Amino acid sequence: MALTPPLYKGARALLATMHGKERVIAPLAGRFLGLTVEVAPGLDTDAFGTFSRDVARTGSPLNAARAKIAAAFALAGDVQVALASEGSFGPHPHVPFAALDRELVVLIDRDSGLELVGQHAGLDTNFAHAVVTERAAALAFAERAGFPAHGVIVMGVRGGQPAPDLALIKDIYNADTLADAAHAAIAATGAAHIETDMRAHRNPRRMRAIKRAMIDLIRRARSRCPECARPGFGVTGRLAGLPCAWCTAPTLLTRAEVWTCAGCGHREERRVRAITADPMQCEECNP
């Protein structure tokens, strides 16, 4: 990647974070994009939603990242580029009992209107929670989660559900403070909801996923439209219909990817490497 001239040559950029994401984003942005990244000063990104539920998240992760970038631009009228990251966690749609981490890193150039979005989704996450009524159970959960290297959060409980309005302890760094936090929540609400802290600076696995999303953003920056040379030319859709190897009937598998330029609108269909589909995927041969 270092052989490609960077988009920017020492240009200043703001990163909308208060959770240490500059550790993985800034070096890559500097080396491959030519940006000098600074953390947006005084920006409270928790105002856009928290994993701990004390501030509700509204809208999509992409819109949240865009809102963070807009707030960063509002702090410095002379800055051309800003970046933000957003993550979401939940059950994997296809793998039972597995959690999925989806990460976005977004770059916006307000002079040119360029927006680049890097993405990563993976199973390497410790996203989990438990409701406990004893401090020993809280400690056992934390140990399974990789505590203290990976943080945990303790909340109160109402009706079996987390209630951060009744009790919320985030910055827990050792077994003693964890035991105290669990005791306080149990004493106040009868139980403690304990979960992995998904904030980037308290979750090394998530920090690695953000780094992978940033690498994807760099790949997109290097992919230029064959018509207008705008960065960000990439896959925007997939077309089903890969023919069955036996009967040639179209299957639901992808036959081609759709590549689109957000600048000039140029569109290409690029066939996938596979020529035919396994008959196991054919509704005619394997009904």
Low-pLDDT regions: none
Structural class: alpha+beta
Strand order, main sheet: write it out: 2-1-3-4-5
- Radius of gyration, CA atoms, in whole angstroms: 23 Å
Average pLDDT reading: 95
Individual helix count: 5
The H-and-E topology, N to C, reads as: EHEHEEEEHEEHEHEEE
Q: Distance N terminus to C terminus?
A: 46 Å
Task: Tell me roughly what share of residues is in helical segments.
Answer: 10-25%
CATH topology of the largest domain: Maf protein
Instruction: Tally the beta strands.
Output: 12
Number of separate domains:
3
Largest sheet: 5 strands, mixed
The CATH class of the largest domain, by name, is Alpha Beta
How much strand? 25-35%
The second-level CATH architecture of the largest domain is: Alpha-Beta Complex
Describe this protein's structure.
The protein has 287 residues and is α+β, with helices and mostly antiparallel strands. The protein has three domains: 11-125 and 202-222, Maf protein; 129-197, Dna Ligase, domain 1 (2-Layer Sandwich), CATH 3.30.1490; 234-281, no CATH class. 25% of the residues lie in helices and 30% in strands. It contains five helices and twelve strands. The chain has helices spanning 22-33, 61-75, 135-144, 175-189, 204-222; strands at 11-16, 35-39, 81-91, 99-109, 115-122, 129-132, 152-158, 161-169, 192-196, 234-240, 254-260, 267-271. The strands form three sheets. A five-stranded mixed beta sheet has the order 2-1-3-4-5, sandwiched between helices. A four-stranded antiparallel beta sheet has the order 6-9-7-8. The chain has a three-stranded antiparallel beta sheet with strand order 10-11-12, with no helix packed on it.
